[in-house]
Amino acid sequence: MVRLNARSVGLLWGALLALVGANSVHAQTAQEIAQRAFGSTVLLVMEDANGQPLSLGSGFVVRDGEIASNLHVVEGAARGYAKLVGQKTKYDLEGVTAVDPERDLVVLKISARSQALPLGNSDAVQVGEPVYAVGNPQGLEGTFSQGIVSSIREVGTDKLLQITAPISPGSSGGPVLNGKGEVIGVSVATFRGGQNLNFAIPSSYLKTLLSKASPAKPKPLAEAKPVKAARSILADLGGRSTEGGRRGTVDLEIHGTPVRRIRALPTKSTARERKKRLLPCDLLRRSGQSY
Questions:
Q1: Cystine design at 135: which of 124, 171, 208, 289 (Cβ 3.0–4.6 Å)?
Q2: Which fold has domain 122-203?
Q3: Quick one: which of 64, 105, 75, 61 has its CA closest to 209?
Q4: Using one digit for the tens of pLDDT, what is the confidence trace for 204-215?
Q5: 172 catalytic residue (yes or no)
Q6: pLDDT tens for each residue of 110-150
Q7: Which residues, in sequence order, are CB contacts of 169 under 8 Å at separation 6+?
Q8: Is the predicted pLDDT of residue 203 greater than 70, yes or no?
Q9: CB of 104 within 8 A of CB of 234?
Q10: pLDDT in the model for residue 24
Q11: Is 51 helix (H, G, I), strand (E, B) or coil?
Q12: Catalytic-labelled residue, pool 40, 55, 72, 100
């Protein structure tokens, strides 16, 4: 039997408290995460050459004067502006500092100065981990939703995070955060009628893109086009959206473009029923209609 004196017991308790503190020092409450995220999340309003609204989306500050979003949010826009959640000031988008068409990511230059959200390690994300999605679904600014990582999908040579945190049209480009308030993904798409099947681009791809950004020499917004990409992560996100889709795939559509090759169990629903289930989470406004 080992006997411990008072000094040894005190040292043991100190070590235990230090260990507990080390594990919890970075953990934050949902309220803390929301408050910090709102100060760095923006509503993106994109316009055509005539100044008419083209789409609404989300984005977030990744470093001073730069915000990240999805490429499909700004695609086809002639100009646009960003507005921090809860604020009235509008900041014109000054250009594109980096773009990754294959993974539907874009980095935009703005004159706003706000605290950047820290980027976490998406490679360390585990299924079952709690996550929080922040965005502007249907134009409702500053919407904060909670969920978990329900799966990590392999899409071609890339990965996608499947999450249960609700996202809707208007959420595209918004941050998905872990329990430490770090960005581990960028909201990108959701299944229509798919019982909360949502997807995010892992932050590891955004980190790589930021290392290639040129904030001193932004390119015109109109050059943010995915047409030259050899492949796109979204183009591999589902099955064919036409009649006669292959067994074992899910038939999806993004912006009217068929998407394919995400592994799924065979389903009895017809291709017609499955068509247009996967929506990019930006809110399109064309001819007075919202999609």
A1: 171
A2: Thrombin, subunit H (2.40.10)
A3: 105
A4: 999 999 999 988
A5: yes
A6: 988 889 999 999 999 999 999 999 999 988 999 999 999 99
A7: 137, 138, 279, 280, 281, 282, 283, 284, 290, 291
A8: yes
A9: yes
A10: 43
A11: coil
A12: 72
Average pLDDT, the chain: 77
Coil, strand or helix: which one is 261? coil
Amino acid found at 259 = V
SS3 category, 38: helix
Of 100, 104, 251, 282, which one is the catalytic site residue?
104
Buried b (16+ CB within 10 A) or exposed e, 229-258: beebbbbbbbbbbeeebeeebbbbbbeeeb
Residue 102 carries which side chain, given as an amino acid letter?
E
- pLDDT tens sequence across 53-90: 898 999 999 999 999 999 999 998 999 999 999 999 99
Residue 195 binned pLDDT confidence (cut-offs 50, 70, 90)? confident
Does the active-site annotation cover 100?
no
Identity of residue 124: A
Region 215-236: what's the mean pLDDT? 70
According to the CATH classification, is domain 38-116+209-223 in 1.10.10.10?
no
Residue with tokens 């959206």: 241
Tokens of 262: 């995400």
More confident call, 196 vs 108: 108
State both tokens at 86: 């809860």
Catalytic residue flag (residue 187): no
**Could you tell me the residue ranges of all domains in the chain?**
38-116+209-223, 122-203
Residue tagged active-site, from 55, 145, 172, 187: 172
Is the separation of the CB atoms in 132 and 33 below 8 Å?
A: yes
Whether the CB-CB separation of 97 and 108 falls below 8 Å is answered with yes
3-state secondary structure of 221: helix
